[in-house]
Amino acid sequence: MALHDIVSPLPGTFYRRPSPDADYYVALDATVAAGAVVGLVEVMKQFTEIESEVPGRVVELLVEDGEPVDAGQVLMRIEG
């Protein structure tokens, strides 16, 4: 199986859940569908959904909830 990087399309703050009291979109070893939302990047109160482009299993989470990210930074890896 191939590994697929999910990257941030823009600089901002990465969130693994839609609100502070909500569950994470995905966890390590979770199965995701193509098109599934796996996180958010916030820039100046504008939120951009990050989607998985492939179906598979989350094998690496590289950024913590609330951590700043750069454009092109790998957020997680999907095996699929």
UniProtKB/TrEMBL annotation:
GO terms for biological process: fatty acid biosynthetic process. The keyword Lipid biosynthesis applies. The keyword Cell membrane does not apply. Pathway: Lipid metabolism; fatty acid biosynthesis. GO terms for cellular component: acetyl-CoA carboxylase complex. InterPro entries: AcCoA_biotinCC, Biotin_Carboxyl_Carrier/Decarb, Biotin_lipoyl, Single_hybrid_motif. Residues 1-79 form the Lipoyl-binding domain. Pfam families: Biotin_lipoyl. GO terms for molecular function: acetyl-CoA carboxylase activity. SUPFAM superfamilies: Single hybrid motif (SSF51230). Keywords: Biotin, Fatty acid biosynthesis, Fatty acid metabolism, Lipid biosynthesis, Lipid metabolism. Gene3D superfamilies: 2.40.50.100. It comes from the Bacteria. NCBIfam families: PRK07051.1 (NF005457). This protein is a component of the acetyl coenzyme A carboxylase complex; first, biotin carboxylase catalyzes the carboxylation of the carrier protein and then the transcarboxylase transfers the carboxyl group to form malonyl-CoA. This is Biotin carboxyl carrier protein of acetyl-CoA carboxylase.
